Amino acid sequence: MRERADVTADGTRGTRRHKRNGEEPMVPRADFDSYYGRPVIKAPGWSARDIAGYFFLGGLAGAGSVLAAGAQLTRRPATAKAMKISSLAAITLSYAALVNDLGRPGRFVNMLRVFKPTSPMSVGSWLLSGYGPCAGAAAFCAVTGRLPGAGAAATAGAAVTGPAVAAYTAVLAADTAVPAWHGAHRELPYVFVASAAAAASGMALVLAPVRENGPARCAAVLAAAGEMSAMSAAERSLGMVAETYREGRAGRLLRAARVLTTAGAAGAAVFGRQSRTVAVGSGAMLLAGSACTRFGIFAAGIASAEDPVYTVRPQRMAKERTAQERAAGEREARRGAAVVQDGGG
Amino acid sequence: MTSHLLSGPEADPARDAGHEDAPPRVGFFTDTSVCIGCKACEVACKEWNAIPEDGLSLTGMSYDNTQSLGASTWRHVAFIEQSVPAGRTAPAPGQDLLPDSVSGPGSASVPPSVPDGRVPAPDGRTTLPLASGDGEVRWLMSSDVCKHCTHAACLDVCPTGSLFRTEFGTVVVQDDICNGCGYCVPACPYGVIEQRPSDGRAFKCTMCYDRLGAGQEPACAKACPTESIQFGVLDELRERAARRVGRLHAAGVTEARLYGHEPDDGVGGDGAFFLLLDRPEVYGLPPDPVVTTRDLPAMWRHAAMAALSLAGGIALSFAASTLTEGLTGALAGRKELP
User: Fold this and answer.
1) Are residues B271 and B303 in the same domain?
2) Could you tell me the pTM of the whole model?
3) CB contact under 8 A, A312 and B287
């Protein structure tokens, strides 16, 4: 159909020049064009430790605050106190990771110049500014035993903003041109909250006494099931880009996440009530699984940004689909016009 | 869909950004069919904007050693060497292919062709991936730049308000407000904006905002010797580009096509658009870029649903275990009764 030049310079046309992580692609690829194999978009300059670490810690803190509030309401004082401390620790480390990413602490203040709903990072900065003090006050009152009324209010405040802190990071990642993140923008929030729930219930299993861990065991099972189904939905809508979730570093991390999360949830559900040791072990596996999920998704995003095929191919396919739809629409319109003419004549 | 300002055609982005008496939107039309790859634009840009040096290296991939746009490269001349199959478009001799604005002898012959059809020997540069094959070799050169999108993802996602829409409809970073978060970098569908490693802040083409304010054209357009880079009022540039591509088609250069000129594309049209002689991806440009914030309302909806299901799931866990523990407690209690 289309006459075009054969670019024979290595990497410009045809299969990719670079092997990724020393692995040959499993499926031979059809031709695609690129500028000497160079990426089209720029991968984020964020370090995995800071940003994937923040995704994990923010989720642990946010979902943990909901668990803490639930435990307080249902008179599970040890769990409530432990989760408040864990959330404060996690959100403090989150701030540290974010400030480290900016380079200088003073730069964080610029985040609060404006409120921009079109910027998930602006929304997140304001969320953290509301959530952080609540989590801090809740933990302070729980540890010191002072001001129980204020402590209850702070616990409630953290429980209300906590889910938003856990969910918005998915929008933060998806609201980019990174194919592996943007392509899953509908599913990623569910993956992130499920992973957050897995981490927080894991932390509760590690810290809380066995007689109080019923809700955490139940939440762990729900979280694991939710994460598995949200992840497979994400891979379906990603199409060919889903291979960045299966190959290389991301593939290894996400396979480990699946094993750890499933084993942790199963262990907690079956033996978590009988044995404190199993509960702690299962909790640790859930925490590790959640971390692997976040670092895996982060790595998949970087891999999809660095290889031009994941930018070019889906866009080419979208363009061809639009052209076909447009052509079909025009045929439809012509037929409609013909019918009208027939009717009029 | 078009009721919000996140995607779709938008006639006057400067006015929508709050500039009451905005001058007409300006832009670049880069006609790559007359680019000679001289890199005067790169040099003029670096000089005028006092951009630091960002590496002197030989890539070995082509004659392009600049490689890509970045924090310290705001104009980048791409260089592509291709072998053209026999029988394919080669400019017929004597046909006037020069744009309206360029005339007279001594102008660049376009595109470059090899005399008597033979490919010159690589002259010692055997490691360079030179094009091979029986056909004629052609060189494609294109000066890439920030597209100054109608719907600019970098601007939308910037959390500090450092990136802003100017009265000219262009997109500029205020370096005293940028806090180095780096969010604009992966948001850009063209891979233009980048953080400077030395201080982490983001930099990109300003379309010479200072020169525009003084009624001057940007440095790159001023320096371009073949008028491949044309600066002007965007609507006029679009008309001129349509005439140019029609003329090239009439002359048999059927592969000439415009890129980024349509106001209804995924970014609402580019403030800097191009005439290309091959598919955009050959030049390292995305074939169908979409501003990521087009889907932001859907993302926030799903995030809200996800946050609610997180709270609901944990509430359910407490309800279920309280209920089962109550039941088992009651059963155990009943057994203990005499």
Assistant:
1) no
2) 0.88
3) yes
